[in-house]
Inverse folding.
């Protein structure tokens, strides 16, 4: 199936490892031109080299998306490089497992900024360009724990808010031909990720977790998230906007 993404300009935040890296590779395989960012110079350079070797056109900039000035520079340089932005994938996120009674106001603000406000920040800067060029697509990488209980309270709250923002933006931007969707991964395993660390720390507990929580009997792979993201960014998903799509191997228990 030709997804029609050849030469589209795709921005992926947090693209230097894990799900973000897989998403960047997924778009590269479709012939898209990439603008990627990450906080860590070495891992960002590694993925840039991987993509370039595959023949992809890549603009990469070390960027902390919680810093407004850095995001402004990243988005401006993307437009300067390519002249447009067709797709934005907000992939940055993270959590901490601080006991509830010990979570400070500062930590609440940091988790919300990392997961929610960072996406709002990138969107705010990209939307005027999309309106000017006549349309675009925005995607948020959220979590099944933004849809139901299971993660840490601060992470749940931030991801639930991100899903809500998706719906609000979708309704607001539909007249401008800008589609907005979110993808909610389940438990995804990749080197250096949280689940890999948990497996290393307590393999028996993780075996029990998979048996009780993962009907397919395994963790998900970053590429399985990327495949859905790439499809949703394409015109093959032209009627899909305001949706939150679970990619979790039936890990969730919600009916919706």
């Amino acid at each position: 199936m030709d997804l029609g993404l050849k030469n589209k300009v795709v921005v992926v935040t947090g693209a230097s490892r894990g799900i973000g890296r897989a998403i960047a590779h997924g778009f590269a395989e479709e012939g898209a031109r990439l603008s990627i960012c990450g906080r860590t110079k070495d891992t960002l350079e590694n993925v840039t080299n991987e993509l370039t070797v595959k023949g992809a056109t890549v603009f990469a900039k070390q960027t902390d998306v919680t810093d407004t000035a850095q995001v402004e520079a990243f988005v401006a340089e993307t437009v300067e490089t390519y002249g447009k932005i067709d797709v934005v994938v907000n992939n940055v996120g993270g959590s901490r497992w601080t006991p509830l009674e010990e979570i400070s106001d500062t930590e609440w603000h940091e988790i919300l900024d990392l997961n929610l406000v960072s996406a709002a920040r990138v969107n705010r800067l990209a939307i005027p360009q999309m309106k000017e060029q006549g349309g675009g697509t925005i995607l948020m990488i959220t979590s099944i724990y933004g849809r139901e209980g299971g993660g840490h309270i601060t992470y749940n709250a931030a991801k639930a808010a991100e899903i809500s923002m998706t719906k609000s933006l979708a309704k607001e931007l539909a007249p401008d031909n800008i589609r907005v969707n979110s993808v909610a991964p389940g438990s995804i395993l990749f080197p250096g990720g949280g689940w890999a660390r948990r497996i290393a720390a307590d393999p028996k507990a993780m075996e029990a977790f998979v048996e009780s929580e993962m009907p397919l009997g395994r963790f998900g792979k970053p590429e399985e998230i990327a495949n859905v993201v790439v499809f949703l960014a394409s015109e093959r998903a032209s009627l899909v906007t305001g949706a939150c799509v679970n990619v979790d191997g039936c890990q969730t228990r919600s009916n919706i």
